[in-house]
Amino acid sequence: MDDKGFIFTADATLALVVVIVITASIVTYVGLPIFQGEDHQHLEALADSVLESMDQSGTLARDAALCSSNNTTLQDEGRSDLIENLNLVIPQGIGYKLTVGNSVISSTDSDASVNHTSPATSSDVATKVKVISGAQIGWVGRAYYKQEEVNFVDQNQTQVTTLWNFHNWLQNFNPWSNGLDNDPYWAGGQSPGSISFNIPTNGTINGAKFLLGSSGGYYNQSWWQSWWVDHAYNANFVLNGNSHSFSGDDFTDLQYSSPNTGEMYNYLGNISGSELNSGLNNFYVNFIAQSSRSEQYMPWFSVIGNYSTSIKVPQGVLTNTFNFTDIAGVGNPSKCLQYDLTTGSIITTPTKSISWNDLKQTTQNPEIDTSTPFQLTNIPSGTSQGSAVASTCDVYLPDNTRLFDAYTVVNPYGGCDRAIVQVKNSYGTWQTIFTSFDYNGVDYTERTDGGYGNIPGILNIAPYLTAGHNTVRIILWDDAPGSDYDLVGLTSCYSTITYSQLPIRWDTFAFNSKQYKSSTGTQSQNFNIASDAQEALLFLGTGMDSRNITVTVKKQGSSTTSTLYTGSIPYVLNLGDLDAASTQTKHIITNVSTNGSYQLVPGNYTLTVSLTPGKSYESGDYGGSGTSVSTYANPEIFSGTRIGIIYPKFLQNAWSSGFASTADEAKTNANNTLQGILNSTHVSYNANLIKTEAIFTGDTPSSIPVRLELWKQ
Hints:
Helices cover 11% and strands 44% of the residues. With 713 residues, it is mainly beta. Residues 1-37, 110-116 and 221-225 have low confidence and may be disordered.
């Protein structure tokens, strides 16, 4: 789906016409739907956001007045402007019908060649109505600035990412089922092996931290007697040839026991940036079990990295990042514990159980308290209960802006097996946008055990945000089939939005979230490149067990396919640069000049992503039922995998309006407002080129109903 932003600035086509400044009440109500569900809530929120933003920008009042005038030229101007704006902000695959007074505008008006459905043939139609009333007579001033295109600038972004996570008991995989004293190397078994992870950046690597869990184990004193000793093993974590040695005394006692393995411990260590490589990094762990001691096993291992990346975006595009609160602990029905990742301290929290049946409700009043670890119950697929933590962040989307891109980064650690991600929009409606298990008609996994190991790295949240304050919630848990409630944690998770008040175009085409049951995951996504596009980017959001990726592209309707990339998984790929490379035997999306420069070719294309995972013992993800060293994990592609097509040219004039009792005052107000917008977006402009005008308002109908209907095509 083309997830364009649905909050936008006003139109630029300026005409000296009589218009009305609306200052009185706006009445809003909701049409009764045929069917209620999450799709309907999404459509309803989208319709409300579109109308509200059009009203806030002044576009709705202006175009409603034009469409309601007796002048056919002005009616056509209003209709054309509304069609242009609606097509920019309503995603592909969504049909619309806008009724302004007696004037009807629909999605078929802009592309009659497409086989559109209509509200009469759709099973779910969301309707929003605004009745505009109350005119004020006076002067409306307009200020507008025409800029053909903006420059692209480098935008630096700091990424904090779980680079690798093992979430299982290593004893569940051969050869370590015989004990760490017999096979003391992970990987390798009897001798050092190598497990690799990728840091997808050519920028600065700031450093990382790692966590290693241990069970206490027991003395095997004789054939007839044994007892618990509750002590972590000694270990040496070797990364790129750099040793991090520590003893069992250096671990933090987590103050809980797991059945049949004893007391549980965690070690937290730091990794300097100089120890890490851009691209592949290799490590192994040497477990040094104490003599005559068995059942000292590894329940989790995590590496969390911090690095910077840079992408080119149009000048005037703003990025805001909103952080989640770090949280970790154990949600046990008899004892809940909270773990502080920074200090290593442990506190006991009130025992708490929360049912999925309550969490999945779209309206939660009062809000469910997930601020401390809890037992999650009534999980519909796989193990029905787990040790869970959750964290939330507030995502504020300013009014009167275009939302280009929005995503949430999930950084789990510990024994985490599955996850849920939800969004509450600014109207208070919760939507579940991801579950490890299949839910609400969406197939999130091909596995039959509820999506074990199906934990997202990056998810696309743009379709679910509305102007104002939104809440994103991540729920993470360890499956507890034998009441072995283990430590799980979330650290450095965040949500990022990219937006602008300027009339810039940035189209997003997101993949679907899916866990595959084979050792290869493949998914295709259609996308469109229009005239004047300058950047074509592919952002990657795959499973943490993923190793390598292949990206191919073809023109829709053609059998000619080009391989753009094969290798380790980066943060972002520049599709234009890859397609235009001299090593390519054919160029699909670019027209390359003799000097090596290129232009993106307008057209409809299909991009296919195919990825392969690492071995199952490396991540703890069972590859089917296999547990040998030759078994591969199950790969995942998440909605954070998305194509971004970015355009440097302004779609229209940037403009603002202001109302006053005199013409000069109205023009000054409008000029000041426009310069404030341009200054806030850091766009270079010549204030002398800002044009102003003032128009006297006159009569208008006493009320103009504006009705917007949306449905899925």
